[in-house]
Design goal:
By secondary structure, the chain is of the alpha+beta class. The chain is 18% helix and 48% strand. It has six helices and 24 strands. Strands 2-3-4-1-5-6-7 form a seven-stranded mixed sheet, with helices on both faces. Strand 20 and strand 21 form a beta hairpin. Helix 1 crosses helix 5. The longest helix is centred in the middle third of the chain and has 14 residues.
Length: 340
């Protein structure tokens, strides 16, 4: 089963033309499943429900997405911030749909120029047609098939956004497999609590499964974990291995950052210049953490985080840097390195 997660800024109406609504929380999800060449292929749309009032739902959707959809109702500051958010992420491919509000008009040529200025040069403009957009999303899935397959073989990183106890089952964590593959009976290491447990059972799309891989939204029943070991924003990985008998040393798949060096790439739409003492947020792998700048020299920042940030050891994804009192709130993207 291959899943393509699609981060969407747009209407419930358009999302429902592409896929069936499934979950309605801080982000709304919509799923369409087809069987092609004997294999299930799923489009999963992730649409923030409380944006632009709150920034985090948009960043969480983008953090889980592989491609994007932006529905353009107007040329305004909200559209500008959305473009900056997508351009500051690892999402290079997407679909733009011009759909003016009733009685209004949108200059598509101006919209296309804004996409180019933001750096979204590989995005395609399409008509407001759910079936055609769905077909294009499946084409995109085929285009990045190798990337999706490689991600499933990477070291495991799961970002958790819900957790609760279920009678007769125990502690359950819900989240996205950002990379890697998780199997029933696998041992787990939970961050930042450093808790542990064992994978009792797994569910993907409400079906019991023996494994979940990169792209899946997974429910994990965890045996042996304490209730307070999980929080929204927790990261689940496999335990480190340090076996002296076999000389096997495999570290955790993420590196804990308390102080980080950031090579900042500022958005072309952002005029604010960050300085020592400024407060910033980082969004990476569904983590949304606040920090304070200890030094700022050009685009090189040293940031101390209020709580640890966990960065993938292999092929780290682009991090989005935000400042909630800026306009737009997205400053840009950053390569994050551990401070020595």
């Amino acid at each position: 089963m291959t899943v393509l997660n699609v981060a969407m800024f747009g209407s419930d109406e358009l999302a429902k033309e592409i896929a069936k609504a499934t979950d309605q929380r801080d982000v709304h999800t919509y799923v369409h499943k087809e069987t092609k060449d004997g294999a299930a292929k799923i489009i999963s749309i992730i649409r923030p429900a409380r944006y632009p009032e709150r920034l985090r739902p948009l960043l969480n959707a983008i953090s889980a997405g592989r491609v994007g959809i932006i529905e353009i109702n107007a040329i305004d500051a909200v559209l500008g911030e959305v473009l900056v958010a997508f351009a500051s992420s690892s999402i290079e491919h997407g679909i733009a749909v011009v759909k003016p509000k009733e009685g209004d008009w949108v200059d598509q040529e101006m919209a296309e120029k804004m996409f180019t200025q933001a750096g979204l040069t590989k995005w395609k403009f399409m008509a407001h047609d759910g079936l055609e957009i769905r077909d294009k999303l499946y084409d995109m899935m085929d285009d990045i098939e190798d990337e999706l397959a490689n991600s499933a073989t990477s070291p495991l990183v799961i970002s958790i956004d819900q957790h609760f106890n279920v009678k007769g089952i125990g502690l359950v964590a819900i989240g996205y497999v950002q990379c890697g593959t998780l199997r029933v009976h696998d041992e787990l290491h939970i961050l930042p609590s450093n808790g542990g447990g064992n994978t009792k059972s797994l569910q993907v799309m409400d079906d019991d499964v023996q494994s979940a891989q990169s792209g899946d939204r997974v429910g994990i029943a965890i045996r042996g974990a304490k209730d307070d070991s999980l929080s929204n924003g927790s990261i689940i990985v496999k335990p480190a291995i340090n076996d002296k008998k076999t000389n096997t040393h495999i570290p955790l798949s993420v590196v804990e950052h308390k102080i980080s060096k950031l090579a900042l790439k500022t958005s072309p739409f952002q005029k604010r210049i960050l300085a020592e003492g400024d407060v910033v947020h980082v969004s990476v792998d569904l983590q949304f953490t606040v920090g304070r700048i200890k030094s700022a020299i050009g685009g090189e920042l040293l940031v101390e985080w209020d709580s640890p940030v966990y960065i993938r050891r292999e092929d780290p994804t682009s991090a989005i840097i935000a400042q909630l009192d800026s306009k737009p709130r997205i400053i840009g993207s950053a390569v994050i390195e551990l401070s020595e």
